[in-house]
Amino acid sequence: MKRLLMMSLFVGFCATAMDAQGLPYQNANLSAAQRADDLLSRLTLDEKVSLMMDTSPAIPRLGIPQFQWWNEALHGIGRNGFATVFPITMAMAASWDDALLHQVFTAVSDEARVKAQQAKCTGDIKRYQSLSFWTPNINIFRDPRWGRGQETYGEDPYLTAKMGLAVVRGLQGVGYNGEDLGVSKYRKLLACAKHFAVHSGPEWNRHEFNIENLPERDLWETYLPAFKALVQEGKVAEVMCAYQRIDGQACCAQTRYEQQILRDEWGFDGLITSDCGAIRDFLPRWHNVSKDGAEASAKAVLAGTDVECGSEYKHLPEAVRRGDVKEADIDRSLRRLLIARFELGDMDSDDLNAWTKIPETVVASQAHKDLALKMALKSIVLLQNKIKVLPLGNPLNAGAGSDKDIVVMGPNANDSVMMWGNYAGYPTHTVTALDGITRMAKTLSPDATVRFIQGCGLTRNEVFESRFNQIKDPLGNSGIQIAYWNNTEMQGAPVTVVNRKQPVQLSNGGNTVFAPGVNLENCSARLDGTLVPTADETLSFEISGDDRLRLIVNGDTLVNIWNPRQRIQSGKKEIAVKAGQHYRIQIDYVQETGYGALNFDIKKRVNPTAEELLAQIGNTQTIIFVGGISPNLEGEEMRVNEPGFKGGDRTSIELPQAQRDLLAVLHKAGKKVIFVNCSGSAMALAPELETCDAILQWWYGGEQGGAALATTLFGMVAPSGKLPVTFYKSTDELPDFLDYTMKNRTYRYYEGEPLFPFGFGLGYTTFNIDKPIYKNNKVQVRVKNLGTTAGTETVQVYIRHLADKEGPKKSLRAYQQVTLNAAEAKTISIELPRKSFEGWDVKTNTMRVVPGKYEVMVGNSSADKDLKKIIVNIK
């Protein structure tokens, strides 16, 4: 009955028009503010409060539909079925191409509108299916240990602002420069700048952490500029307040930040949402700034937090009754929410809103995959290239014997899920490093051999051998039996029963059914087999999938994931088995809606010796080692039991020792080692400068990452990515993780010599950048390609106020990319208006353009040796 009621409510929204009832809030010709005021007057207190929760229910008596404030689109639509998965945001920042990023998020918002429309027409909008998206994350990446650094656009305020503006404009349906595209009078989506205002870890204590005595300079010159740009230039619809406290007060109750800075100084008229559970954190168990939920909710509303992700706002009626907050205060917040929903066209006929007409075929379309490939190509950063070992070109035709063979090694070489990063959707297909390299090698030389030898794990000298071939089905045949039902209860006769002889790797990606006749959604399966080991050994039974799954061995339930979270979940159990004994295996699986996947294998852990690995490699000379770390180790508030990691953060930024040792073995054996590093941020790779002939930073490259990597390795496209963060030599060079001051942090304040500087990145050619000229608010500079191949260079402009001895050594203020053919030269002009010289004025304690002499530095990285300098006088 509930579902029928919901469907009846929504059918009008998906039909050609909704019957108008003639009330002002239903009049699409009135302004969003006028409509909000009218609707606000018709709501009860309980109804008002319900609309301020992130899961906002329908109010049928007023025709208000469901709404979900919490949706994710960090680098593609997240947690909502199939979608195009782009490289992680840190990787996209490495492109230094905000125009391309705007194209990416225009594609993302197209997919978002389609998915929201599909959900709307079902009559039941679930989490992650509406029109408000909590992205971008524009926190400044101050410390490489922060596990969520992969979600940011790096360590520089200017680059972060440029990238953030591109994201917001792409999501909200305006042009690259903020111009109205003339598509619809409604907003396309609501974007959200997060996490306001000073937040970059650690993950393990964020619900209790207090930032004290932060210098005003660091606040205004480092942590706030990107937020100000998104509010004032990007017209971002939402801002999210962070978990921690600042000077003893929780961020989501900070009147100074939410009222004085955001609204009074910057003129923000959008809405503020809490991070998830942040209002709960006010309670005694965490920040201890409120005695109960009613007081916590009242404090948040009074400070200006309009939407709660959590459940404490349910206490607001109680807070009103006891005088903690007035209903008028609630009205002020709710008015902002209602305006935002009216601006989306959320309560109007689809006929009035062109955004609702985007065709469903755009989701995971070939055009969007091509865009993911283009971004993945531009995100790869070449860090080292001894004796120009890259590009490989076509070494497979160079001669006989070992030159016709490539070995791909490393724990990340064949891991597709690693490439998705965090907060990801589900791609219809992922091209791994191994896939891409194999395909490219075969294309260049059909008789080429590409072999995969894993070599080691991420953090341990271990690999896993499958024992799946020791399973027999109920009839005694090799393999496991799988029975499928086209219902979620495994009831009635199965629609098909099959035998599978390989490890289970099933997904409905690309609309691929698990077996003939089986539904893509709302289906179930039971797997049945018996393991008969051939030796006494300890085996790992490993299972993962989406949605529900259960692993039972000899009647004991080893893994029970029966409460799905709309994402891949996994479990494993080690069992000491005896040769010849029988181990009955039963797996129950249920696929409900959206993405479906089931993976199962039985593995033996093996610790290969250096001698054994070299014997497997044989005479092969070219080794492509794909290693680094993984989103399984770094991310948001994680439980990781591995050395060097804590709560999703890192305690060590060095490459794990197991990989470091193996690279040294390969180097000592005389192999040509090409190291491809996967990570969400900076890694300390000092020893790898010696043991590796080439080093590429691949990040987590998204669904087309393997194709981009292979295209780059073999020289089809030259790398052009630049680091958006500083790569330090070791963890020992980092300040205390809990210290939020900028002293000795990032390229702007770092006192040491970095391993690789901010803005650094090699190509397959070299460029000369002449001494610049500053004239008419522009930097003019001649750039020449000195090589024999075409390439793209990013010309970077930094400034320094010479009289400011306490300020940053240099600060990025502009950049421009230029593509030149071999031996071609071009003079480019880069805008550098007076406002670009804004900085902290120590005399007035304000941000302003202080007249005086400035050093303007132009080059291809932030390193002094890469910059040409001039002095300009700003009046």
From TrEMBL:
Keywords annotated in UniProt: Hydrolase, Signal
Keyword Acyltransferase in record: no
Domain PA14: 475-618
The organism's place on the tree of life at top rank: Bacteria
Pfam families attached to this UniProt entry: Fn3-like, Glyco_hydro_3, Glyco_hydro_3_C, PA14
GO molecular function annotation: alpha-L-arabinofuranosidase activity; xylan 1,4-beta-xylosidase activity
GO BP terms: arabinan catabolic process; xylan catabolic process
Keyword Hydrolase recorded: yes
Signal sequence region: 1-17
Family to which this protein belongs: Belongs to the glycosyl hydrolase 3 family.
PANTHER family reported for this sequence: BETA-D-XYLOSIDASE 5-RELATED, SUGAR HYDROLASE-RELATED
Name under which the protein is recorded: Glycosyl hydrolase, family 3
